[in-house]
Design brief:
This protein is α/β, with parallel strands linked by helices. 38% of the residues lie in helices and 10% in strands. Helix 2 runs parallel beside helix 9. The chain is globular.
Length: 526
């Protein structure tokens, strides 16, 4: 039987996809999840012969509800678990599933957590009472994933015990991985019904529900495209369990932090707060942690977008106490040495890697050379094509190469309608004069006569280009304005909350997807 990797479609095929994070799916429990709406969306993509469903990272959500600040780079987010699926497995009763009322258009992480976590604990209690053959798959899952799973469950249990505070603030026994098991035992977190076992159970259920969704995708000819953040969160099982891999002091405090210099999104750059890597240690360990991370992610997805690919060539190091990213400086990244190890371990018979390089930002020739050396397609974002950015011409479709993935916009951009209608404000990153020039350039390039059709014109520009893969966020397919934006980089609060309505995933949407896919030769053969 072929492995998932062997069955995965190549990124070199001419195809298309939709960007939609699972939390943005409709549903009655505060957040979208891996349940019926996800399976319905797969069916919609399949009927339209759209090959790719792209998601954001699916790890345990960290501060600010950001999927890019996860408590683990290996684990799955428990809030993505479907209560209906737990009921199907006999772990919950149907009358125990109480939809949130009134339903909300925007995600409510806190309400979802208050609803779901008591039900998770109830399902765990019932599962723990089971024995024999019913537990065999669970035991196998725990054993096969012990390399990351036990550390994560121990970390999560201790974090709950400490009221959710950062591991940096825990007492020394819990803060040190070598003594943490003793701390967990003294806090009564271990044992077959303890907090640690609860998190093992939730990750097992996440794997089961993910596998069911993945199988449904493969049956329907839909491939999953994931997103791999370059950095781990400071407060994570990764930094807690292997502090030697990160640029931190003996107490886990940051020696420096990650960020980017001034760019399209921020005149003073961005401070991300993530610890940087001790790349020399990773190299000495033959990149074992990175290979495990990529292998785990490719067990869930058919291909991955490598976030902030530029950072593998050179990264922006900002002093820990800096007030803005402007105070940072470039340092050398691992470069080809890392990707040679990745290709040897994870490449197919021809050495091809199922990876997309997010090569946005200040792209020096060496970054392009690194991407080309390993055959990784780069990204082109149409919203960057018409402004004053020095790289703008490279984002115009007539300059694309086939080894590209074109987006109308990404999760960090405004919606296409919001971007085009931006009149300039205190919250805008663009001056009114620059917006006027950009709008005029877009009108001329797209041959647009009606601003209300800007999203359709941008989708056509992406789909008609020579780029092998075209990805469009669901918000742009729906023609939504700035209120549907997913994230505003450098801001706290109000991000990652947009959700589709039930009637958004409609027959008319499927017809539009199918028409575009067929017209521009991107429909997948079934």
């Amino acid at each position: 039987m072929a492995s998932d990797r062997e069955k995965s479609p190549p990124l070199s095929d001419r195809s298309c996809g939709v960007l939609l994070h699972p939390t943005s799916l409709p549903g009655p429990y505060g957040l979208g999840d891996l349940g019926p709406a996800a399976h319905h969306f797969v069916a919609l993509l399949s009927q339209a012969k759209v090959r790719w469903w792209q998601m954001l990272p699916v790890g345990p959500i960290g501060y600010g509800n950001s999927p890019y600040q996860s408590f683990s780079t290996f684990a799955g987010e428990p809030l993505l678990l479907s209560l209906e699926r737990l009921a199907d497995d006999g772990l919950l009763e149907r009358d125990e599933l109480t939809p949130l009322s009134p339903p909300r258009q925007f995600a409510s992480y806190a309400r979802a957590a208050r609803l779901k976590w008591p039900l998770f604990r109830l399902a765990f209690k019932r599962f723990a009472a089971r024995g024999g053959a019913e537990r065999a798959p669970y035991e196998q899952f725990v054993e096969e994933n012990r390399g990351w799973l036990f550390d994560y469950a121990l970390f999560a249990a201790l974090k709950t015990h400490h009221g959710g505070t950062s591991w940096i603030e825990w007492e020394e026994t819990a803060r040190r991985r070598e003594s943490a098991e003793r701390a967990a035992e003294s806090a009564s977190l271990t044992g077959p019904t303890g907090e640690l076992a609860l998190h093992l159970f939730l990750q097992y259920q996440f794997e089961r529900q993910w596998r069911a969704l993945r199988d449904h995708c493969q049956e329907r000819g839909v491939a999953l495209l994931g997103d791999l953040p370059i950095y781990a969160a400071h407060d994570s099982a990764d930094t807690w369990g292997a502090p030697q891999l990160f640029d931190m002091d003996d107490d886990g405090r940051l020696a420096a932090q990650a960020g980017v210099p001034p760019d399209y999104f921020s005149a003073s750059g961005q401070l991300w707060g993530n610890p940087l890597y001790r790349w020399e240690v990773h190299r000495d360990e033959a990149y074992r942690w990175w290979l495990s991370r990529l292998k785990s992610a490719l067990g869930r997805f058919d291909a991955l977008r490598l976030d902030h690919f530029i950072g593998f060539y050179r990264y922006w190091r900002v002093p820990a106490g800096a007030l803005t990213a402007y105070e940072g400086s470039y340092r050398e990244g691992p470069g080809p040495h890392l990707f040679e190890a990745v290709r040897r371990a994870l490449g197919d018979a021809g050495g091809h890697l199922p990876l997309i390089a997010e090569d946005l930002g200040v792209v020096v020739p060496e970054v392009k050379a690194l991407r080309a050396a390993f055959g990784l397609p780069g990204m082109r974002v149409l919203q960057f094509a018409f402004g004053d950015d020095p790289e703008a011409d490279s984002y115009k479709p007539h300059n694309f190469t086939r080894d590209s993935v074109v987006y109308t916009g990404t999760h960090d951009n405004d919606t296409t309608v919001g971007w085009f209608m931006d009149a300039g404000s205190a919250a805008s990153t663009r001056a009114p004069e620059a917006i006027a020039r950009e709008r005029a350039a877009a009108f001329a390039y797209l041959g647009l006569g009606d601003a209300r059709q800007i999203h359709v014109a941008m989708i056509r520009a992406a789909f008609s280009s020579v780029a092998n893969l075209a990805i469009v966020p669901l918000q742009d397919w729906l023609g939504l304005d700035a209120s549907a934006r997913m994230n505003r980089p450098g801001t706290l609060g109000g991000n990652w909350e947009w959700r589709a309505r039930d009637d958004d995933l409609s027959e008319s949407l499927g017809e539009m997807l199918a028409q575009m896919a067929h017209t521009y030769g991107r429909a997948t053969a079934r």
